[in-house]
Each structure stands twice: as structure tokens, then as C-alpha cells.
Design a protein that fits this description.
Porin; 16-stranded antiparallel beta barrel; 10% helix; mainly beta
Length: 454
């Protein structure tokens, strides 16, 4: 089995300052909400914030996301919940005077009770902020920029979705599947290296030219480690720093088109794949070949070495007003396929539209409509059919769950955004067993998120 210790040792030598050789590539990650002090509630701190950034390369960010969601119909039960996420981060560029060396750390404070477990019972979490209540370390890494910024090497701890499977347009939505696909969260150990459980990693990014970028990383494959119960409780503080598990490797090839100028229609197209070197259980068959639902089964799933997936995504501007690059409509889509015999879900797809500046005088607002589909694997569906065959259920699993989300981000003032949101969940839980013991009716969920950036 590939171990993370060897990966860390091999990469440490690359984190040495190197002279600039070329112009840096364009930004490729999602923007930091505190990059521009004009977009925060606390502004420049009387000029101190600007001086820290300019003279010392130090930037701070504190963001609070507070949400109120209600289930109007279907799901587990009607009702309302409140949940929230406070994120605090600090980044230091040119750390210790070393050119191109950056250091980053972030903390999470997760509070409240999310709507998914309490109200709807679906697989695709209603909000990308809800998680088990805790205060924990999340990101912690150092990064060296080389070749004038064309090549960067990062080592430390982060989540896979911090840089992979990103689409700027899908980030406007609240349902978690428009970030980290539910097919991965359902099948990877402890939900995979992703919010709220980051994992030790090594990441390399290389911009071949202004159109082509290659991104690859290796993570520890089980951020919380083996065990029973909620993995977020097994690593409540985010400091497990595990290096003993099967590695999770992921890579992407990006191709950029168009121009970000006033009349351009930029787009980014990606193909990628991942491989996990750990052991995975067949959802339907035990290690003797007997159906797991059978009374004769020993309850120990057949173990299979490794898991993998391939995926592709697009994020393309399809319309812009003349001479106005800050407004326009973007189309995005992603599809991911993985093996049937070792995953709860073997296919995921999403797509949608995000319209920035939909109304005159509201250039910072975003109106969005999107759809996400999570299909159960053939093995998981076979398990559901076996439950019926052996008299443990009255109906098979439904095979898939879908979410339709309509959302609107309203920029109130610099640093304050209100986001009313409506989601329709089709086949919550895909008909799998739940707290009520019956298949759940389609759910209608409405809510609002308030985001404050300090």
C-alpha cells in the first residue's frame, strides 16, 4: 500500500526558494473573500491592513455564514434549523523573507444543527456549511512558487475540494454536491479528505502556458482514521495528521478558452481522475460470496483493493452584455463515474446556470439554477433488492436522488451578502433505510444564508 510518509519525504526538497524565470500564470483557484479590503466590513483597519499586506505579505480573513432552513414538505419531518460556520484564516507571503514562499492556516467553528440529518434525510447535504459541531484546525500548509509562479508546490493539510473539482459558477450554490460530489463523500473512508476533515497532502500545480494547467496531489486517504460512529467526532480538533492510511491521489488537466476582457467569453474545461489505495467493501456480497442481506451472511463485506473514478467538467461564459466583463451568464457541468462493485454511488452529474448581475444596478448579485443527480451503484441496488427478497424490506431502493436548487445572492453592502435559497429534493436518501423505516417523500426546503466578511 502506498503510504503518505514516503510522499512527504520525497517532496520536502522541492520547497526551496528559486529565482523567478517567467511571468506567473493567471489565478486558477476560487477567490479569497478577504483579498480585497473594500469587500469587507472592517475595511483597511485605518490603513494597518494595507500596510501588513504590502510590507509584510500578511492577510487576515474572518467569515461568518449563518443559515436558517426549513423543510416545508416531505423528507423526515417538517421544521426549521439554524446552523453556521465561522472561518478564520491567515496567510503570509514571502515568509521569512524567502521569495515565493507562502504559509497558510485556517480554523473552523461549526455551530448549530443542519437541516439534512434533522429534517430531510437526503444524501446530498442541503448546505455545504453544515457539519458536526466543533472547533477545529482545517488548512495548514506551506507553498513554494517556482519558475516565476508557473510551478507551485504545496505541502501540509487541506481538503481535496479546496483546489480540485472546482467550478467558479457552481460555488454560488449552497447544496454540498455543487462542491464535493456526493458519490465521493458516500464511498471514501470518513467521507474523504474534504470539509470539515482536511488531510495531510502534497500538491503540485504547473501552468504549461496561458491555456493549459496540470494539477495533481496525494492525500492521506482517511482523514479521521478507522473506527465506528461519526468520523468528525474521531477527529474533533482537526489535528489527527494521519500518515498511515492508503493514499488518495487525484489529478486534473485544465484547458482555458476565450478571454476575460470586456467582450470575451472565458471558459475552463477539465478532465481528471482519482485513485484510492485502500480497501473497500462490496455493498451487496460478503467475503464468502453470500448476499449481505441473507440471514446466512456473516455481515463482513467482500474486501476489494483500491477504488478510482474519472470525471470531466466545464465552466463557460455563454453571454455577456457588451463592454461589461463583470456581468453575464455562465453554464457549468460535471460528471463523475466510478466502479459499481465497491461504491454506494457509481455515477454523479450536475449542471446549471449562474447569472451575475441579472438586474441593472446589481452587478454583484448572482441568480442561479442548478441540478445534481446521485445514482446508486448496481451493487447497492442489488443489496436493496436482496433486502426485499429476504423479507427485511417491503420495497427496493429507488436508485437515485436528485436536487434542484434555485438561489439568489444579494450583495447588501461590502462584506454582507444575503442568499435566499430554495431546494427540491427528489427521492431523499434514494429510498435507502432511514429513521422512519420507510421511503421518504420528495422534500421542499427553503432557507436563507447570511455571509459576513470581516
Amino acid at each position: 500500500m502506498i503510504k503518505m510518509q514516503a510522499v512527504f519525504i520525497l517532496v520536502m526538497a522541492s520547497l526551496l526558494p528559486t529565482a523567478a524565470l517567467a511571468d506567473p500564470p493567471p489565478p486558477t483557484a476560487l477567490p479569497n473573500p478577504c483579498t480585497t479590503v473594500d469587500e469587507t466590513l472592517t475595511g483597511t483597519w485605518g490603513g494597518a491592513r494595507d500596510r501588513l499586506a504590502t510590507n509584510h505579505g500578511i492577510t487576515f480573513c474572518v467569515q461568518e455564514q449563518s443559515e436558517l432552513f426549513g423543510n416545508l414538505n416531505g423528507g423526515l419531518r417538517r421544521g426549521a434549523t439554524y446552523d453556521g460556520l465561522t472561518t478564520a484564516s491567515v496567510k503570509v507571503d514571502n515568509f521569512a523573507g524567502l521569495d515565493g514562499l507562502s504559509v497558510y492556516a485556517s480554523l473552523l467553528q461549526i455551530h448549530g444543527r443542519g437541516p439534512t440529518a434533522n429534517l430531510t434525510g437526503n444524501l446530498q447535504t442541503i448546505t455545504n456549511a453544515e457539519a458536526t459541531r466543533s472547533t477545529k484546525l482545517y488548512g495548514l500548509w506551506i507553498e513554494q512558487s517556482l519558475l516565476g509562479g508557473a510551478l507551485t508546490v504545496r505541502i501540509g493539510q487541506e481538503g481535496a475540494n479546496d483546489e480540485f473539482m472546482l467550478m467558479k459558477s457552481s460555488a454560488n450554490f449552497i447544496n454540498s454536491s455543487f462542491g464535493f460530489p456526493a458519490s465521493m463523500a458516500l464511498s471514501l473512508p470518513s467521507g474523504g479528505p474534504n470539509y470539515p476533515l482536511a488531510a495531510p497532502m502534497v500538491r503540485v500545480q504547473y501552468a504549461v502556458n496561458d491555456r493549459i494547467t496540470v494539477l495533481g496531489a496525494v492525500f492521506d486517504g482517511d482523514p479521521a482514521g478507522p473506527g465506528t460512529g461519526d468520523p468528525q467526532l474521531r477527529d474533533r480538533t482537526g489535528t489527527a495528521f494521519r500518515l498511515r492510511d492508503g493514499a488518495f491521489g487525484i489529478a486534473e488537466l485544465w484547458y482555458s478558452v476565450g478571454s476575460d476582457g470586456e467582450d470575451g467569453r472565458p471558459g475552463v474545461y477539465k478532465v481528471g481522475g482519482w485513485y484510492h489505495a485502500g480497501l473497500f467493501g462490496n455493498p451487496a456480497i460478503d467475503n464468502r460470496g453470500i448476499p449481505l442481506a441473507s440471514p446466512a451472511s456473516n455481515g463482513m463485506p467482500r474486501r476489494l483493493r483500491g477504488d478510482q473514478a474519472i470525471y470531466a467538467s466545464m465552466d463557460q461564459t455563454i453571454w455577456r452584455p457588451e463592454h461589461d466583463k463583470d456581468r453575464g451568464i455562465n453554464l457549468f457541468a460535471l460528471a463523475i463515474v466510478s466502479p459499481d462493485d465497491r461504491n454506494v454511488s457509481s455515477f454523479f452529474a450536475e449542471g446549471g446556470l449562474a447569472w451575475t448581475g441579472p438586474f441593472a444596478g446589481r452587478a454583484k448579485d448572482v441568480l442561479g439554477l442548478a441540478f445534481a443527480l446521485t445514482n446508486l451503484s448496481a451493487a447497492e441496488r442489488a443489496y436493496g433488492a436482496d433486502l426485499v427478497r429476504f423479507g427485511q424490506a417491503t420495497a427496493p431502493f429507488r436508485g437515485s436522488e436528485a436536487v434542484i436548487e434555485l438561489t439568489y445572492q444579494y450583495a447588501v453592502t461590502p462584506g454582507v451578502t444575503l442568499q435566499p435559497d430554495l431546494q427540491y429534493v427528489i427521492n431523499p436518501g434514494a429510498g435507502m433505510p432511514n429513521a422512519t423505516g420507510t421511503a421518504l417523500k420528495n422534500a421542499v426546503v427553503a432557507g436563507v444564508r447570511a455571509t459576513l466578511v470581516f
